[in-house]
Amino acid sequence: SYTEGYWETPKLAEFLCFLIKNKKYFDRRLRYFRGIRPWIEALMHRRRKNTVQNSPKNIQDHYDLSNDFFSLFLDPSMTYSSAVFENPGDGLEEAQRNKIRRLAQSIDITAEDHVLEIGCGWGAFAIQTVRETGCRWTGLTLSVEQKKWAEEKIAEAGLSDRIEIKLLDYRHVEGVYDKVISVEMIEAVGHEFLDEFFQVCSRSLRLGGKMALQGIVIPHERYDQYRRSCDWLQKHIFPGGHLPSLEVLQHKFNSSKLRLVSVDRIGAHYARTLALWHEALNQKTEELHALGCTPAFIRKWRYYFSYCEAGFISKFIDVVQVVLTKG
């Protein structure tokens, strides 16, 4: 109803925080009025699970909207994941650099390393880290638009001899790497494929190598119900999307010969990141219209940013940075 313009509020994230805080009350009052629609939506969501065949379409439906669109609200590096605001005065661009540097340092990337990045986005992590360390880098994406953008920026940076971007499903990656990075790609794996994902990570990592993972997680007590349903985000923004719980991830680490070294929670940083994306989007109305974005599409993205911001503020969801080692 919000995306269709039936109601408005100047404090959308705060209103959604109120709804989250009172979720149990609303669930009790509304359970008799839901009918079979949630079951149908859950069934449709399961049809889009992230098989080798479905994953390219699921990724491209979101990330190939257009590079011009994403550039309207992301920082100049086109980093589309939670930033880390180390200081009160950090802007978004600096906070994204902080996040990249923090993850790279957490697994001790050096000039001798060959790094595999599963889900490389528009190439910001690769470009910054190769500049700062001199390592070699192989990035994987299923987005044609991301690959095109990343390769152009890599060439502009003079790093084409150090960085390779492949349009490749992680299940088909070959070779052994010194370090593995994956930033907010775990949400595109799916419950059924988590074992396989971490088996691939383990197989691709040399003995003694390290892996850094940043991902959005859901409290474990809600996980079973969540994975059998379909929420607004999965239906309208991320087809095939799935948030694991940290407990489920820990079980998968253990079964794939990856040992957990550390976990940091940074959900509050994502709330601020989303607020800045939302603010930037609100300032680009003319540009959005020039790209052909309809009022309903624009409101859907505003709702998406506020929906997620409220989730992190309320701790309904969280973000973790995990360091793993093999052996």
Structure overview:
With 327 residues, the protein is α/β, with parallel strands linked by helices. It has one domain (12-326): Rossmann fold (3-Layer(aba) Sandwich). It contains 15 helices and 7 strands. The chain has helices spanning 12-21, 23-30, 37-46, 55-63, 67-70, 92-106, 124-133, 144-156, 194-204, 223-227, 232-236, 246-255, 267-282, 285-290, 295-313, and strands at 114-118, 136-141, 163-167, 177-183, 205-217, 258-265, 318-326. Strands 3-2-1-4-5-7-6 form a 7-stranded mixed β-sheet, sandwiched between helices. The chain is globular, with a radius of gyration of 20 Å. The mean pLDDT is 90.
Q: Return the CATH topology.
A: Rossmann fold
Uncertain residue ranges: none
Total number of beta strands: 7
Mean pLDDT across the residues is: 90
| Total helical segments | 15
Strand order of the largest sheet: 3-2-1-4-5-7-6
Report the β-strand fraction as a percent range.
15-25%
Fraction of residues in H or I helices: 40-55%
* String of helices and strands: HHHHHHEHEHEEHEHHHEHHHE
CATH architecture title = 3-Layer(aba) Sandwich
- Using the alpha-carbon principal axes, give the shape: globular
